[in-house]
C-alpha cells in the first residue's frame, strides 16, 4: 500500500463525518468506519442496503424526490433530514450528495454531518422568540383593555381569559375564601405570588371583607419568561382591582344616598382622574421594567451576534430575533405613549392632537382631516387637556371599530368663551345612535369636564358629535 493510500485510509477511518457511496438504486456500496458510531449499524449491516433505511419515515418522500432530481440533473445538492439510529434515537443531519454520471450503476458520493445540536439550538431560539412575542403581545393587549373603565366582574372575566389563553393547562380560578392548602395564619400578601405544592395562589386584594385570590396549577409554567410575564400581569391586575374596588364602593354609597339616575359630575371627574393615574402608573411600570428588560436583552443579543464563531445560519436566526426584539421595543414604547402621551402639557392641545393624528394616520384605514381656529393661544389646565385628548382618542377608536368611515373630520375652535370640538365621519349608520362604549366614554368625559356632548345620527347618514366646553372651567368643576 502506498503512502497516499495509507493517508487516505487514515483520513476515512478517523473522520467524524459519514461518507457513503451508493448506486442509482440507493444501495450502499461503501461506508466509512464512522458509520457505526453515527448510525449504530456496522458497515456490514448496511452493505448493499437501501440508504433510506436510516432516514426518518416522514422525510423519505422528500428525499426520494431529491434523489430522482439529482440523477436527472447530474448536479450536486445539499439538504437536511432526520436520521433514525439503530437504537431509535432521532438525529438531524446535513447531507451533500455528489453524482458520478460516468460510473457504472451511476454512483453517488454522500457526505453527511451531524447537526443535531445546531438544529436544537435553532428550534429552541425559534420557540423562545415566538413565545416571547406571545407574552409581550398578551401584556400589550391586557394593558390596553384595562384602560377602559370596567366593572369588577369584567376584570375577573378578563383575567381568567388571559390566563387560560397564555397558560392553557393552568386551570385558573377566582377564589373568595382562603383555600384549604393555606392556613389562616399564612401571610398571603396582595400582589405576591405564593407557590405551595402544585398550586400557585395570588391575592389581588380584599372585597366585601373576603379575600380575592387567583388560583393556578403551577405545572402549567416551565419557562422563566412565563414567571416574569405572570408577575407583570399580576401587577396590572392588582392596581386595577384596587381602583375598581374603590370605585365600586363609592358607587354603592352613591346609590344609597341619591335617587338621581345620572352619575354626579364630581364622581365622573374622580373616576377619570383615577383612570389617568392608573394609566400613568402602567406606563411608568412598562417603561421602567418591561421596556428596560427588552433593551437589555437586545444589547446582549447584539453582543452575541458579534462573535465570530457563530455560523451564518445561526446568525440569520439571531438577526431575526434581534429584529423581533426591536419591534417589541417599539410596540412597548407606543403603548407607553398611548397610556400617557408625552409632552402633552408642554406642547399644548393643538400640537398634541396634530401629533396624534399623524401617528394614527400611519396605520388607520381612514383619512383624518383636522382644522383649528383661535386655539393656538388657548390656556387650559392639564386635566382639561387630557380630557379633550382622550375624547378625541375615543372617536378615533369609534371610527376604526364601528363606523367603518373613509374620512373623519375634527374641527376645533374657540367661540364666545367656549371650546367647541366637532367630530364627523362618512360612515353609514343604521338609524338612531345605539349605546356604544366609545361614545358613552366620550360623553362621560365631557360631563366630567363640565361640558356637554350632542350627537346627530340618522339612517344612512353620517355621524356627528359636538362638544361644547366652557373655557373657564374651574367654577364648573366644583
Can you describe this structure?
The protein has 478 residues and is α+β, with helices and mostly antiparallel strands. The chain has 13 helices and 14 strands. A 5-stranded antiparallel β-sheet has the order 2-1-5-4-3, sandwiched between helices. Strands 10-11-12-14-13 form a 5-stranded mixed β-sheet, with helices on one face. It has a 4-stranded antiparallel β-sheet with strand order 6-9-8-7. Helix 5 runs parallel beside helix 7. It is elongated, with a radius of gyration of 33 Å. It starts with a helix and ends in an 8-residue tail after the last strand.
Shape designation: elongated
Q: Return the structural class.
A: alpha+beta
- Please list the strands of the largest sheet in the order they lie side by side: 2-1-5-4-3
Q: What value does the average pLDDT take?
A: 79
Helicity level, as a percent range?
40-55%
Largest sheet: 5 strands, antiparallel
Number of strand elements = 14
Q: What is the gyration radius calculated from CA atoms?
A: 33 Å
Number of helices: 13
Assess the beta-strand content as a share of residues. Answer: 15-25%
Q: What separation lies between the terminal Cα atoms?
A: 107 Å
Amino acid at each position: 500500500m502506498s503512502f497516499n493510500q495509507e493517508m487516505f485510509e487514515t483520513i476515512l477511518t478517523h473522520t467524524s463525518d459519514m461518507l457513503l457511496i451508493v448506486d442509482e438504486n440507493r444501495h450502499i456500496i461503501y461506508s466509512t468506519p464512522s458509520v457505526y458510531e453515527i448510525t449504530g449499524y456496522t458497515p456490514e449491516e448496511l452493505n448493499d442496503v437501501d440508504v433510506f433505511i436510516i432516514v426518518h419515515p416522514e422525510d423519505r418522500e422528500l428525499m426520494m424526490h431529491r434523489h430522482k432530481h439529482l440523477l436527472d440533473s447530474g448536479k450536486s445538492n445539499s439538504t437536511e433530514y432526520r436520521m433514525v439510529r439503530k437504537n431509535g434515537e432521532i438525529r438531524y443531519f446535513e447531507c451533500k450528495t455528489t453524482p458520478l454520471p460516468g460510473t457504472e450503476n451511476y454512483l453517488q458520493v454522500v457526505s453527511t454531518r451531524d447537526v443535531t445540536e445546531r438544529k436544537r439550538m435553532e428550534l429552541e431560539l425559534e420557540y423562545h422568540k415566538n413565545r416571547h412575542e406571545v407574552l409581550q403581545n398578551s401584556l400589550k393587549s391586557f394593558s390596553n383593555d384595562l384602560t377602559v373603565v370596567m366593572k369588577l366582574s369584567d376584570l375577573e372575566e378578563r383575567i381568567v381569559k388571559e390566563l387560560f389563553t397564555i397558560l392553557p393547562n393552568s386551570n385558573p380560578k377566582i377564589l373568595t375564601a382562603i383555600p384549604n392548602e393555606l392556613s389562616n395564619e399564612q401571610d398571603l400578601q396582595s400582589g405576591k405570588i405564593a407557590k405551595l405544592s402544585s398550586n400557585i395562589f395570588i391575592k389581588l386584594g380584599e372585597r366585601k371583607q373576603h379575600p380575592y385570590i387567583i388560583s393556578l396549577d403551577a405545572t402549567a409554567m416551565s419557562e422563566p419568561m412565563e414567571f416574569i410575564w405572570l408577575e407583570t400581569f399580576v401587577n396590572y391586575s392588582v392596581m386595577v382591582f384596587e381602583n375598581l374596588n374603590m370605585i365600586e364602593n363609592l358607587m354603592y354609597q352613591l346609590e344609597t344616598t341619591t335617587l338621581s339616575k345620572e352619575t354626579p359630575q364630581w364622581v365622573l371627574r374622580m373616576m377619570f382622574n383615577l383612570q389617568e393615574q392608573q394609566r400613568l402608573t402602567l406606563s411608568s411600570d412598562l417603561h421602567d421594567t418591561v421596556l428596560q428588560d427588552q433593551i437589555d436583552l437586545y444589547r446582549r443579543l447584539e453582543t452575541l451576534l458579534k462573535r465570530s464563531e457563530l455560523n451564518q445560519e445561526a446568525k440569520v436566526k439571531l438577526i431575526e430575533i434581534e429584529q423581533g426584539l426591536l419591534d417589541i421595543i417599539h410596540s412597548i414604547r407606543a403603548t407607553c405613549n398611548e397610556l400617557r402621551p408625552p409632552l402633552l402639557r408642554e406642547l399644548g392641545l393643538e400640537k398634541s392632537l396634530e401629533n396624534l393624528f399623524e401617528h394614527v394616520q400611519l396605520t388607520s384605514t381612514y383619512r383624518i382631516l383636522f382644522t383649528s381656529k383661535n386655539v393656538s393661544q388657548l390656556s387650559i389646565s392639564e386635566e382639561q387637556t387630557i380630557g379633550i385628548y382622550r375624547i378625541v382618542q375615543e372617536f378615533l377608536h369609534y371610527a376604526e371599530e364601528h363606523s367603518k368611515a373613509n374620512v373623519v373630520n375634527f374641527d376645533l375652535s374657540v367661540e364666545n368663551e367656549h371650546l367647541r370640538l366637532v367630530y364627523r365621519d362618512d360612515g353609514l349608520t343604521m338609524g338612531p345612535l345605539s349605546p356604544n362604549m366609545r361614545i358613552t366614554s366620550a360623553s362621560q368625559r365631557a360631563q366630567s369636564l363640565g361640558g356637554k356632548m350632542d350627537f346627530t345620527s340618522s339612517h344612512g347618514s353620517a355621524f356627528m358629535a359636538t362638544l361644547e366646553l366652557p373655557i373657564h372651567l374651574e367654577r364648573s368643576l366644583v
